[in-house]
Design goal:
By secondary structure, this protein is an alpha+beta fold. It is 22% helix and 42% strand. A hairpin with a 5-residue loop joins strand 6 and strand 7 (121-127).
Amino acid sequence: MIFLYVDLKESKTAGYAETERQLLKANALTEVTAIKTFNGEKAYHVVFGKDGKEEKIIFYPLEGKKKNLTTINQSEIIAEDAIIDDWKQQCNQCEFVKITPALVNENALWELTYKDQSGRYVLDYLSIYDGSRYEQYRLKRMFN
């Protein structure tokens, strides 16, 4: 059972080291601080790092040989903690799952995932710049 867990965890982070190596080699970043994965219409490694003077978020596409990077200055966005704090005030009976930067139709967003007071699994997409809602999905459980 432990082997299965380790194997699953490794597949979840597969390619992180290569993505980091490519971004450092291309001088897109001088330091990588974290990497997450976003799976939407297209899959991305979401790379947090610094370019020497500013903190950045880079969406690194997983498909194709030519990589069209989307780069965001963290100083220009609403912080992750601020989005979570605002959400807690609006949905105090909800259960937080995770938050990840997302790229949907070239729009930089926060993907906020949680279970609402009705037990639905919610994917809430909010603008990374002003927190306005882009779209929301509420999934109802069909089987227990």
